[in-house]
Specification:
Elements: H1 2-12, H2 17-24, H3 28-35, H4 44-54, H5 58-61, H6 77-88, H7 93-109
């Protein structure tokens, strides 16, 4: 979903995939996998770079698009700070997912 939104915004700005990749400082091949939703969870750091070029915020890029795709509630600044803190402290995506699964299990076990 994020990939489709990035592609939509890139095309709206009249940028090629190479131009966006160059301006954002990410590899063209990596951007291509994001746009095709092969790599569906780009890091917040990469999203921030792409959003800067596309003139949108990270929460905006995660919102529902005009085609009616599932809406994800935008992250407020506190959530963004928490995610950044986790990333900076070395928490991996897998560790974070494990934590979330544990929390779901804990709530259903009660």
């Amino acid at each position: 979903m994020i990939g489709k939104r990035i592609k939509q915004l890139r095309q709206k700005m009249g940028l090629t995939i190479s131009e966006l990749a160059d301006r954002a400082g990410v590899a063209k091949s990596y951007l291509s996998t994001i746009e095709r939703d092969i790599h569906g969870n780009p890091s917040i750091h990469v999203l921030e770079k792409l959003c800067a070029v596309l003139h949108v915020t990270v929460p905006e890029i995660m919102q529902e698009n005009r085609n009616g795709e599932r809406q994800i509630e935008p992250l407020d600044s506190e959530w963004i700070d928490i995610v950044r803190e986790a990333m900076n402290s070395g928490v991996t995506k897998e560790q974070f997912r494990d934590f979330l699964e544990f929390q779901k299990w804990r709530h259903t076990a009660k």
